[in-house]
Design a protein that fits this description.
single chain, alpha/beta, Luciferase, domain 3, Rossmann fold, six-stranded mixed β-sheet, 15 strands, 27% strand, globular, disordered C terminus, binds zinc ion
Length: 343
């Protein structure tokens, strides 16, 4: 907050309008007073604390409504980020030196595709060295094509090798794959140590959403992957943090960030166990004031001990997108908060 206050005029103005100064934030309990910027704000405004040439990676969010956040990351932030990914992946036993075959249930990266989902999927293939990568959406002559045949062929081929397989992608795509195998009455048992790594949530596929245990059961029946080998990641372009679920499939908050759940109307923090808007905080990046970011996701924060996995850090659950009214309230609240348009 102090860094962005010093290096970003727009952010300094927000702090002044809010009447919040660096000295007001003395303890963890004060964190909620750092003005949260809604993800919508990054879609509408350019806000940066470093010049464009210092942004080593530029990413766009996979916005469903057409407007996209243009987010840049700086070298130092990425260095810390890489360290975080390493430590979290190690903790969750996702690092392996065994050559691994990958099926990526997403877009094959190309120069035009800046969406962060393509990059994170590719990034995740470095947690274990890639022997081969097969993409569900293949780039052919300037267009993306669904590569079902190629995926089926790859699954059969990989199942005959001794190398573990990792299937990465949106839960909706994993469901689609399992359904496709069911339809074809195929059961392709993948080698020992194979994993399914899900990420990105259900987003635009929310209506197709199934309960986690239904998806896990389908993946076990079609690919022989047991529940303990199905893991989920959570993160956002505006909050480049890697959350990985525990064995009970809960996202505990790691040391690198804090999560606050805010009341939809008052934007004040709510008690653990209550539903509200998810607000993520991290000091990771110097490139832009991503210090406190308010998503348009509804969620709940729980006491860590309630999970039972042994990790006592609180964990959050994403319930879904805030409704239109909530978003409106939230946007309006945010605009007031930022001293923008008056009511
Ligand atoms: Zn847990």
């Amino acid at each position: 907050m102090a860094f962005h206050n010093q290096h970003c005029k727009r952010y300094a103005q927000i702090l002044i309008k809010q009447g919040i100064a660096y000295a007001d934030i003395q303890s963890i309990e004060d964190l909620h007073r750092i003005p949260p910027l809604p993800t919508l704000y990054y879609k509408k405004q350019k806000i940066a604390s470093l010049p464009c040439k210092k942004m080593v990676i530029k990413a766009t969010s996979s916005g469903t409504s057409g407007s996209k956040s243009q987010i840049g990351y700086d070298a130092k932030g990425l260095y810390f980020g890489a360290h975080m990914v390493y430590r979290i992946a190690k903790y969750h036993k996702l690092l392996s030196s065994k050559p691994t075959n990958y099926i990526i249930l997403g877009y094959q990266p190309n120069k035009e595709n800046q969406a962060v989902t393509a990059k994170t999927a590719l990034g995740a293939t470095y947690l274990a060295p890639a022997k081969e990568r097969v993409y569900a959406l293949q780039y052919v002559n300037g267009n993306y094509e669904l590569n079902i045949k190629g995926m089926m062929k790859a699954l059969v081929k990989f199942s005959k090798q001794s190398n573990p397989v990792r299937i990465l992608g949106f839960p909706a795509y994993a469901l689609f794959l399992a359904n496709e195998l069911e339809k074809r009455k195929r059961r392709i048992i993948l080698p020992k140590g194979s994993k399914v790594i899900l990420g990105g949530g259900w987003k635009q596929f929310y209506s197709e959403r199934v309960e986690k245990d239904v998806l896990y059961q389908k993946l076990f029946l079609t690919l022989g992957i047991e529940e303990e080998n199905i893991r989920e990641f959570y993160g956002a372009v505006e909050h480049p943090m890697l959350y990985c679920d525990c064995k009970n499939h809960h996202f505990h908050v790691p040391i690198y960030s804090r999560v606050i759940v805010r009341d939809v109307d008052t934007l004040l923090p709510v008690a653990n166990g209550k539903v509200g808007i998810l607000n993520f905080l991290t000091p990771l990046m110097e490139s832009m004031p991503l210090t406190s970011v308010m998503t348009d996701d509804l969620g709940v924060l729980y006491d860590g001990a309630e999970c039972g996995c042994g990790n006592l850090a609180p964990y959050f659950e994403v319930i879904g997108r805030a409704g239109l009214r909530d978003i409106h309230t939230c946007t309006q609240g945010a605009e007031e908060l930022l001293g923008g348009r008056k009511k």
